[in-house]
Automatic annotation (TrEMBL):
Keywords: DNA-binding, NADP, Oxidoreductase
Native species: Fusarium mundagurra
SUPFAM superfamilies referenced in this protein's UniProt entry, alphabetically: NAD(P)-binding Rossmann-fold domains
Homology family: Belongs to the short-chain dehydrogenases/reductases (SDR) family.
Residue ranges constituting the HTH CENPB-type domain according to the UniProt record: 245-314
Protein name: HTH CENPB-type domain-containing protein
Length: 446
């Protein structure tokens, strides 16, 4: 059954934790709507089973629906549940680990940390972090033996609380941060085995669980907290479900904790070898080829960069190899050690330590860059370069106390021009000299 979004889950089997209500139920319902052969739900809320089954069946009466009371904080229960899925449905193509426990905000009489009890900490961690690990481990165990081309996927639902640190809800936010970190590690670990793992971090979502965060708090205080956290607007469980189902589908084969590719790009950039868009596309296609998946489209690399705020396209400039080698920390450290020893040996004061730099540049030379043009313009725009180009040299110096001496400027002219001094607001203590080519020489230096 192909949906209008092009997602076809026909013949595929899925598991959903926390699937009897909220985001879990919305995910299970959408999986069925897109043609899932079977949806297995684990949730301790047995009173919600009948209504959940009715909602999922209404979406697709052909989907085989199973609901079981499973405690995800118990690894043995989780392992048995996944084994039953594989035994009865013949495999497991996708899993959404949505189950989680909230933490109620309290009006503090002191530091919030002092209100964190041992029992509450262990209870929330056991579901939000331990439960995710137990489920992911059991799911990977079931998926790793599937035939090549099955393209199994796992989605772990965390929370914006993983990255928004407000000094409260210690157990909840820490568990979600741990879940997010665990998901990144697991994605990198299992990708070579043909399994994709991704994470979703919902914001303020309207679910039965969301009200428990603010239980007993006045509405005005609740609104202030949400506004401060940047979560004043609420989203629906179906909004999150669409993201989860897309990540579980084969439509998202190029997405595997895309953080793997992001981190590799950042590593290349830090070493002075930032890749071109074509290079990003090629490395992605190599990863996909190992899994017998189709290559990415023409605009995938550009869209990939847009999806990740930590990445950006920029014009590059060439950098000399010998100069790049001088950025080696060991070389720099040895030089500073020599300087420190010299200062100590001769008792040199900080105001007698100077750094001089000479730089030369040609006036009137422009470089390629981004410009804004009319939308109807065709072809690449041209910016006219001035015809008058001259070499200028500038010598500058500053000492360790922060005192700088006036600039020494050398121009490639024969005589001083009056308008240098009359028509410009140059500081009076700047020294201006002339030479035939605009460079320094021994005589001028003395």
């Amino acid at each position: 059954m192909a949906s209008r979004l092009g997602i076809n889950l026909t013949g595929r089997v899925f598991s959903v934790t926390g699937g009897a209500s909220g985001m879990g139920l919305a995910t299970a319902t959408l999986l069925a709507r897109h043609g899932a052969a079977a949806v297995w739900i684990a949730d301790p809320q047995t009173a919600r089973f009948d209504s959940a089954r009715a909602q999922i069946t209404a979406a697709n009466s052909s989907t085989d629906v199973h609901l079981e009371a499973v405690d995800v904080s118990d690894s043995k229960q989780v392992d048995s549940w996944i084994e039953r899925i594989v035994s009865k449905s013949g495999g497991l193509h996708g899993s959404a680990n949505v189950a989680g426990l909230p933490q109620t905000l309290k009006i503090p009489n002191g530091p919030n940390l002092l209100g964190e009890t041992d029992d509450l900490w262990r209870k929330i961690m056991s579901v939000n972090l331990d439960g995710v690990m137990y489920c992911t481990r059991a799911q990977v165990r079931a998926m790793v033996s599937m035939e090549k081309g099955s393209n199994p996927a796992i989605v772990n639902v965390s929370s914006m609380g993983a990255i928004n640190h407000g000094g409260a809800l210690y157990a909840y936010t820490t568990s979600k941060a741990g879940c997010e970190h665990f998901t990144r590690n697991a994605a990198k670990d299992v990708f070579p085995y043909g399994i994709r793992i991704n994470g979703v971090l919902p914001g303020n979502t309207t679910t039965p669980m969301s009200d428990q965060f603010f239980e007993g708090l006045p509405q005005e205080m609740r609104d202030q907290i949400m506004e401060k956290a940047g979560l004043s607007s609420s989203i629906q469980p179906e909004d999150i479900a669409r993201a989860v189902v897309w990540l579980l589908s084969e439509n998202s084969l190029t997405v595997n904790g895309e953080e793997i590719i992001v981190k590799f790009i950042l590593d290349l950039d830090s070493r002075g070898f930032p890749p071109r868009l074509r290079g990003v596309e090629e490395m992605t296609n190599r990863l996909l080829a190992d899994r017998d998946a189709s290559p990415v489209g023409k605009r995938w690399a550009m869209n990939f960069v847009k999806r990740h705020q930590e990445l950006k396209t920029r014009f590059f400039r060439k950098y000399d190899y010998q100069r790049a080698k001088c950025e080696d920390p060991n070389i720099i450290r040895n030089w500073f050690r020599l300087v420190e020893n010299t200062i100590a040996k001769y008792g040199i004061r900080s105001d007698d330590i100077w750094n001089f730099d000479e730089t030369g540049f040609m006036m009137g030379v422009i470089a390629s860059g981004m410009v804004v043009t009319g939308a109807e313009r065709r072809g690449k725009p041209k910016s006219v370069q001035p015809g008058n180009r001259e070499w200028i040299t500038v010598i500058q110096a500053i000492n360790a106390e922060g005192r700088a001496i006036p600039l020494f400027i050398i121009g490639s002219v024969q005589y001083h021009l009056a308008n240098w001094y009359r028509e410009n607001n140059l500081p009076g203590d700047w020294a201006i000299a002339t030479s035939q080519n605009g460079w320094t020489d021994n005589e001028m230096g003395l």
